[in-house]
Description:
The chain is an alpha/beta fold. It has helices at residues 15-19, 44-49, 51-64, 74-85, 100-104, 163-171, 191-196, 225-238, and strands spanning 9-13, 90-94, 109-111, 114-121, 127-129, 149-153, 175-179, 202-207, 219-222.
Amino acid sequence: MLLPPTGSIVMLTGAGISAESGLATFRGAGGLWEGRRAEDVATPEAFARDPGMVHRFYNQRRRQLHDPAIRPNAAHLALARLEADWPGSVLVVTQNVDDLHERAGSRAVLHMHGQIRRMRCTACLEERLWLGDLDTLTPCPACGATASLRPAIVWFGEMPLEMERIMAALQSCDLFVAVGTSGHVYPAAGFVEVVRDVDRAHTIEVNLEPSAVRSAFAECRVGPAGSVVPTLVDELLAGLR
Ligand code: BJW
């Protein structure tokens, strides 16, 4: 694929990019919410109703990231290689709360749904790295309040992070690629429509199966991210030669 070497690339990633690293996706068989409704876990109301249950859900997922078997896969590594070798700009906008893009070496990463390895105090608004478990008795290290700490992630009904920077990048990009996201959750599912208004921009979806918003993309590459993304990155970099 030929793109001007100064072209701007935005890669939107979802849970599917981390699936081959051993992290469960949200929807579908074996998904994180199987047997539970999203509203019972991933909303501020669920947290207010049963903070212990919500903490246990996220503690288990935070602990999983310490497992040495959970590593960036070929798709994460390919995106880091693209950022290093592409002369123009490459921005990863991820919906994922894991840190696999950073571990792969990507530097320009925006976590629009927050990060599970960070906590926020709802009393003093302190936010910081937090690698251990959280529960309702954990005191805030900054203000000492209890029952005030929560994972620094974005639940349904909350405003996603970095939206200004994301919208600016979408409105000026030459290539938008969505990898491993089902297209069910907004505003991310609507990003392709924003890019469609940019005349020159090309849009590609990479997924095991067409997503809910597949028809908005110019191109769809069906297959596992761990093989499709490295091939796409090879094509982009080959276009420079
Ligand atoms: C592979 C693969 C492999 C598997 N290779 N592919 C009605 C209409 C429109 C919007 C709304 C509405 N009612 C309410 C809303 C808004 C709401 C929303 O979208 N609700 C929908 C359910 C309808 N959105 C919000 O509330 C958001 N905030 C908001 O809108 O604020 C207002 C606003 C206004 C204006 C501008 C901006 C904002 C907040 C959404 C927060 C989402 N939070 C979660 C939880 C985060 C913490 C946590 O991790 O627990 O984020 S929900 C969950 O879904 C998580 C994910 O990031 C997100 C997206 O999921 P994702 O990544 O797509 O995963 P899956 O599992 O769905 O899909 C995986 C895909 O991978 C599948 O397609 C597989 O096929 C594929 N795959 N293996 C390639 N190897």
